[in-house]
Amino acid sequence: MQVDLYVKNGTVVSHRGIEVADIAIKDEKIVAYGDLKDIEAKEVIDATGLHVLPGVIDTQVHFREPGLEYKEDLATGTAAAAMGGVTAIFEMPNTNPLTLTAADMADKVRRGREKAWTDFAFFIGAAAENVSELAMLERQEGVSGVKLFMGSSTGSLLVDNDEDIRRVLEAGSRRVAIHAEDEPRLLERRHLAKDTVLNHPVWRDEECAYRATQRVLSIARETGRRIHVLHITTKQEMELLAQNKDIATVETTPQHLTLSSPTCYEELGSFAQMNPPIRQEEHRLGLWQALRDGIVDVIGSDHAPHTREEKERPYPESPSGMPGVQTLLPLLLDHYNKGELTLENIVDLTSAGAARIYGIAGKGRIGLGFDGDLTLVDLKRKEEITEEWIASKCGWSPFVGKTVQGWPVGTIIRGRQVMKDGELIGTSAGQPVKFQECM
Ligand code: DOR
To answer: What CA–CA distance (Å, rounded) separates 393 from 63?
Structure first.
C-alpha cells in the first residue's frame, strides 16, 4: 500500500486498548492500523518507545483575535497548542468585536485558515441581541457551538437572567457551553474583591458556582436542551451534575486539578487568578473523584492569556485568566505518572470526550476513515516547564519551574507533522473542524 505517512512501532492508546501498532495515513485520513506489512510511505516516523494518542483537542481556549492581539493571536495561540501536542482547538467569543454575527464568525474562520497551526472551531456568543439568529448562527462553518456567560468575566458577554437564558436554550439545537457563575451573587459580593487576590475565591465563592449550575440545569431540563458546563470547580456541583448526565456534559481544567488555594495565591499572586477561581484542596480532590467516577467528560485548558504587566496590577484590577493550552497535556501526563489517572482516561478526556460532546465529524479516534490526527508522547521524559518553551504571546505560565514527567514530542494533523521534538515544522495549515449536525 502507498501512503503519505507511516507511524510505526508506537505504543498506541485507542479503543482497542494499549498495544504496539503501526498507523498509515493517506489523503489526510487513517487508512490502516495494526501490525502492518508492505507499506510504502512518503514519510516514516519510527515511534519505537513512544506512546501514540488520538490527537488532543482543547475545547476551551481564548486566543484574543480579533481585537486583543497584544495578548495573543490565532498564530501564536495555535503555535502554543501544537507545541503542547494539541491538534485542534475550540476558541471563545469574548474577542473584540465579540463573536455574535455571521460576519464576525466568517472573519474568524478566514483568519484561522490564514494562520492557524492546528485545526480550529469557534464558539458563537449568546447575547440578548442575537437570540433570534442563534439557530442559524450555530450552523455556520467552523462553529463548535454556542457559548453563554451567566456571570461576567473578561469582556462584556453576559446573559444573566433566567428569562434570557431560557430564550437562548430554546433557540437552536446544538450543545450550549455554559460559564456558570451567578451574576446577582457576584454583584452582591463585589465589595469582597479587595486588598489581596486571596479574596478572589471569597468573592466568587462556591455558592456562586453552585447556584448558576443549578439554575442552568433546571432551565436545560425544562427546555430539553443539551448543555456543557465549563470549568467546574466544586465537589458540590459535581454531585449535582452526576444527577443530570442525560442533559449535561462536564469540563474541568488542568489548573483546577493541579493547584489549590491558598498556596497558589501565596506563590503566584494574581497570576493564579481566574474565573471561576482555583479553590481549596477539598474541591481539587472532589474534582479528581468526579473524574474517576466518570462525571467529567472533557479537560479543557481555558487558555486565557493576559500580559505580565496586566497581571501585576494590584488586585482586583488584575484581569482573570491564565494560559494553559501548551501545558494541558504535559500536566495530565505528569498526573498519569503519579498514578492519578490512566492513559485511557487521558484519551477519553482529551479526544473521545470532545468528539462525543460536540459531535465532531471524523476526529477523536484512531480508526480507519478518521482524520490522521495523532499526538506522540514520551512518557518517561522529564522536562522542566520554562518560559523559553512557552510559545504563547504572553510569555508566562503558572507552571514555569515545575518539572513534569511525560512530554509531547510530536503533533500530527491530518497526516502532516506540525511539531517535532519541540520545533514547529513547515507552515501553518489549520482547517475548520467539521461537525456532524452541520454537514
Ligand atoms: O478567568 C477567565 N478568563 N475566565 C473567563 O471566563 C474568561 C477568561 C478570559 O477571557 O480572560
So the answer is: 10
